[in-house]
Amino acid sequence: METQKEAMGTVSIFKDGSEIYNASFGYKKLESKKRANENTRYWIGSVSKTYTATIVLQLIEEGKISYNRKLGEFFPSIVNANEITIKDLLLHRSGLHNVTNDPSFEVWIAEPRDRKEMIARIKKYNSDFQPNKMTKYSNTNYVLLSYIIEDLEQKPFEEILEERVFKKLNLQRTSFNDTLNLANNEAMDYFPENGEWSPIVYQTNLTGTMGAGGIISTAREVNVFYSGLFGGKFLSAETLKTMTTPVGDDLGMGIAVSTMKGYDIYGHTGRIDGFRSMAAYFPEEKLSIALTFNCGKGSMTKKMKRVLNAYRYTFK
User: Fold this and answer.
1) Does pTM top 0.90 for this prediction?
2) Backbone dihedral region of 2: left (phi > 0), alpha (psi from -120 to 50 degrees) or beta?
3) Which residue has the higher pLDDT, 248 or 179?
C-alpha cells in the first residue's frame, strides 16, 4: 500500500487473543522522514464509538441507566428529546442531524469546544426524521452519549475511559486526547493531493468529538480492545448479542455488522482529518484485524480484504 501511495500506517492481526502479525509502512512524519513503528499512535476516529457503546452497555448492565431512558432527562432542549431513547442513540435511530456534515464544521472544530458549545451547535439543526423510524449514521448520537456517561458517573469522559477500558486491558498507548503530540510517537496526518501527501490545514481538536471520535491508539492496542470485548471481558454474552444485532440496517450499537469472504464480521471504520482506521473481528475464527493509517485514499474495506486475503494465504 505504501509503494502504490494508497496509505501509510500500521497493520496488526490477532488470533485467539494474541498478536501474530504487526507491520508498519511509510512515515509517521513525512517532513523528517521518521518511519512509523509498532508503537506509533494514530487517531482512530469513529472506531472510538465501539469503546463508548461498551461503556453505555456496562452502565445498563449495572442498572445505572436503561435502554428506554429518554434524552430529555439529560438535554430537554434538544429537538425530540422526550421521544429519543438511549437505545435510539446507540443504534443511530434518533433522527438527530449529524453535526459534522455542516461544511463550516471543519474550521469550527479546530478550536477547543466544550459541552455548552457542542450542545448549542447540535440545537441549531432540525431533526432529519422522527425517532426510531429509520437508521441514519450521526456523530451527534455519540457526542451526546459521552455527556450522558459523564453525568451518570460524575467524572470527565477521559477518566471514565481510563478506568473502565484502558486500565482494565493495560492499554498504555491508548488515550483520549485533545490535540496532536508528535513527541509521543504520534503520527502526523496527511491527505492526497496531486499524487502526493499534503499536511492537513485544519486539525480537529478532540475535546469536541468526545466519544464519537476522540481516542488515540496503536493498531495492536485496538486489537487488544476488540479481542477483549468479544472475549467477554466487558459485557455479558447476552449484552454482546444485543450490541451486535442491527435494527433496520447493518449498524449495531457502536458496531457495524456485515460479512466478508463468507465470514461474519463485527467492526467499525474511522475517519478524522487525514487519519483512516478500521477494526474488524471475525467471531468464528476469533480473529481481529486493525488498520491504523495517518493517510489513505480509496476504500478501507478493500484494504481490509487485502489484509485478510494475505492472512489466509500465509497462515492457513
Assistant:
1) yes
2) alpha
3) 248
